[in-house]
Amino acid sequence: LLYSIEGLNYIAGLLLLVTKSEDTAFWLLKVLVEQILPNYYTRTMEGVITDIEVLEELVRIKIPEVHRHVSAIGLPWAVITTKWFICLFAEVLPIETVLRIWDCLFYEGSKIIFRVCLTLIKRNQVSLLQCSDFSSLAECFKEITRDSLVVQCHEFMQSIFKVPGSLPRSMIVKLRTRLAEERQHRF
User: Fold this and answer.
1) Is the pLDDT of residue 187 over 90?
2) Coil vs helix vs strand at 78
3) If pLDDT is split at 50, 70 and 90, which confidence band does 147 have?
4) What does pTM read for this prediction?
């Protein structure tokens, strides 16, 4: 829960800086927490956990070599991507890029998060596949958020709509439902 609240601090702070209005920042944060990303910032963080599993499945489908490699090394996807999801990239990508991502997030919904994650992973798959152990792979995942393209936010934003290819909202909804149900049956 603490990690979740810390992530909200980054988001709320950046919204306040950008909007320069406590009311506007509050209402944007309310929409984000209650409508766009329900169950992200809760005690169980069920939404985040499910979406990390969805991302893992999307990587398995769209970038299978990276999925096999990460699985073989044994690095949990939650270790790699929790900060990406909780902070909505605010702590790991340049601010201008983050704000453009958030524009798309408010306009198109949460599937933008997956587009960003898949783009970062796919663009850096060669580096990721060269890692031979847990610590070098974890470090490489930190480095991919410093990819030269993320600084060029216009080009990066264009790439998130090309690199991952087709990513229908219905596919994400089905994966969320299936993975959440599977997790409930395990426990």
Assistant:
1) no
2) helix
3) confident
4) 0.94
